[in-house]
Design goal:
Length: 281
C-alpha cells in the first residue's frame, strides 16, 4: 500500500449550516446526517480495534504494518474530529443521535473476547464505507446544491475511506483471523449498520416533519434503489466480501486518487507521524 497521508481539511465548520443543507433534499440531508452521527463512536471503535490487534502481532509483523496503522489511525481520528464539529450543529438543530448509544451498548458485549472479533467488525464496516465512498465519488450529483464546504467534507471522507480500505482487512489476515468469522460478522454488520442507518434517518426525517412527504420517499427511491443507486448499485460489491479470495484492493479506487489530486487546495498534509495521529484525537 502507498503511504497513507493524514490531511487537515481547510474548511469552515464553525459557521452554522441550514437544516436542509443537502440541496434542499430532505431525504439526503437526513441520510447524511444519520451517517455523520455514527462516525465519532464508530471510528473510535475502529481505531481501538486496529490498535488492540496490532499489539498482539509479533514484532516483525508490527513493523510491517506500522505505517499503514499510523495512517489509518490518523485519518480516522481526523474524520472523528471533523464529524464531531458537524454533529454539534445537528445537535443545535434539535436532532438526537440515538445510534451511537445503541452501538456502544452492543459493543460492550465484545469486552473480554478475542480482539479479532472487533477487527472483523471493523473490516466489515470498512467494506461498507469503501462501497459508500466509491458510490458517492461516482455520483457527486447527490450533493448538488449542498454548501461547497459540506460537499468537500463528504467527498474528502469518501476518498480517504477508499485510500485506507484494506488496512483493517490486512491486519485481520495477519492476525490469523478466519474466513468463517469474517463473513459471519459481515452478515451481522450488514443487518446492524443498515438497520441503524435507516432508523436514524427516519428519526431525523420525523424531527424535521418530512417523513410522510411524497418528495422524501421519491428521493429515497432514487438515491437507494434506482439503477446505480446506493443499494442496488452495490449489490455485487457487497456479495464479493463473501468470497474466500476477496481483498479490498480488488475494487477500483481511481476516483479517490483523482479527487485528492484535483482538490489539493482543500487540505494540507500533516503527515502520518504517531504524534500527529495522537494530536488529532
Ligand atoms: Fe472515516
Ligand atoms: Fe475507514
Amino acid at each position: 500500500m502507498t503511504d497513507l497521508v493524514v490531511r487537515r481539511l481547510l474548511i469552515d465548520l464553525q459557521t452554522p449550516f441550514g437544516r436542509n443543507w443537502c440541496g434542499g433534499d430532505a431525504f439526503s440531508t437526513a441520510f447524511f446526517n444519520a451517517l455523520s452521527m455514527s462516525f465519532p463512536f464508530g471510528e473510535q471503535f475502529f481505531i481501538d480495534a486496529v490498535r488492540d490487534v496490532t499489539a498482539t502481532l509479533p514484532p516483525e509483523a508490527q513493523e510491517q504494518y506500522r505505517a499503514d496503522v499510523r495512517g489509518f489511525i490518523g485519518q480516522e481520528a481526523t474524520h472523528r474530529r471533523i464529524h464531531s464539529l458537524f454533529n454539534e450543529h445537528l445537535e443545535s438543530q434539535g436532532l438526537t443521535d440515538r445510534w451511537s448509544p445503541r452501538a456502544a451498548k452492543r459493543m460492550q458485549l465484545l469486552e473480554g473476547t478475542d480482539p479479532r472479533h472487533a477487527l472483523a467488525i471493523t473490516a466489515a464496516t470498512e467494506h461498507f464505507t469503501a462501497m459508500f465512498g466509491e458510490w458517492l465519488l461516482a455520483h457527486p450529483g447527490v450533493l448538488d446544491g449542498a454548501e461547497p464546504r459540506l460537499r468537500t467534507m463528504w467527498l474528502w471522507h469518501s476518498a480517504e475511506e477508499l485510500e485506507h480500505k484494506a488496512v483493517a482487512f490486512d491486519l485481520y489476515k495477519a492476525a490469523g483471523g478466519s474466513h468463517p468469522w469474517r463473513t459471519r460478522w459481515f452478515r451481522s454488520v450488514t443487518l446492524m449498520f443498515l438497520g441503524d442507518l435507516m432508523r436514524q434517518t427516519v428519526a431525523n426525517l420525523r424531527h424535521e416533519g418530512q417523513l410522510w412527504q411524497w418528495a422524501t420517499w421519491k428521493s429515497a427511491a432514487r438515491i437507494l434503489l434506482s439503477r446505480g443507486g446506493l443499494l442496488r448499485g452495490n449489490w455485487s460489491a457487497w456479495r464479493s466480501y463473501f468470497r474466500a479470495d476477496f481483498h479490498p484492493a480488488q475494487q477500483d479506487s481511481s476516483l479517490s486518487v483523482l479527487w485528492l489530486e484535483d482538490n489539493r487546495a482543500q487540505f494540507t498534509s500533516v503527515g502520518a507521524a504517531p504524534e500527529a495521529a495522537t494530536a488529532l484525537q
